[in-house]
């Protein structure tokens, strides 16, 4: 490890010791943050995985119905049926803070309360498969929104975990060892200076004594 | 107030119109990419996009991955499930943990 480029003085030594202490504390805190983030992340990821397979299956089912409806009805008819939706979705977005990661929370709001308002057409000229397709989509929709929430959170948390891990590693493997080595270097240099002064003094004392008493 | 959008080929996404989402039947990569940027600036919090439509605009989607909004979520289209959505999840895990520890 590289020693820091500082003067071997007592002042530097005190400064470095303070820096080392705060680096150690930061390292401990960041490590805790990383561990907790990781725990929450793994929970989220499992939920994400479960939701995704559910949602994908349901959407595929809806798509199958839609394909049948598309083959029974003419394209123009199908488009007219869905052209003017009765329902309008509005999203309320809140923020939630998980270990300093801001994750979004979506609240869905509909223009009308009536759940049958998803059918924007009369049933006389449309295939029942279209009803089925729309119904299965609307059934899975709450889960779809939850999936959006969880998946976004996973992406944001993955990013934060990566960053935190880098910081932890930088502190653990570079900054702390560097500080330790520099502190050791300064202590050695200082005690070496002390010894050399002591030796010099003894020498001088001897010389003075010799002169005074003519040993 | 935020909105939600769906992008993909007409057959896959038209059903979502009934639920009150804004539907954009578009599948040309260039147009989809521009559409995503436009939606992101215009109060769309969630964008669902079919895997087929997402295939050509991966760069654009990755760009919005670390921003808080919008959440861009892949859904299977009428052509079937390519597993791309799951693959993205595995990618997130690999990024966070260092290796893909999810069971497949």
Write the layout of secondary structure elements.
The complex is a heterodimer of chains A (215) and B (104).
Chain A: H1 10-72, H2 75-83, E1 89-98, E2 101-110, H3 128-213
Chain B: E1 3-8, H1 10-17, E2 22-25, H2 29-41, E3 44-50, H3 51-54, H4 58-63, E4 71-75, H5 84-97
Parallel strand pairs in B: 1-2, 1-3, 3-4
Describe the structure in your own words.
- Chain A has one domain: Helix Hairpins (Orthogonal Bundle), CATH 1.10.287.3240.
- Helix content of chain A is 73%, strand content 9%.
- Chain A has helices spanning 10-72, 75-83, 128-213, and strands spanning 89-98, 101-110.
- Chain B contains 5 helices and 4 strands.
- The longest helix of chain B is centred in the last third of the chain and has 14 residues, at 84-97.
- Chain B starts with a strand and ends in a 7-residue tail after the last helix.
- Chain B has 104 residues and is of the alpha/beta class.
- In chain B, strands 2-1-3-4 form a 4-stranded parallel β-sheet, sandwiched between helices.
- Classes of the chains: A mainly alpha (215), B alpha/beta (104).
- At the A-B interface, helix 1, helix 2, strand 1, strand 2 and helix 3 of A face helix 1, strand 3, strand 4 and helix 5 of B.
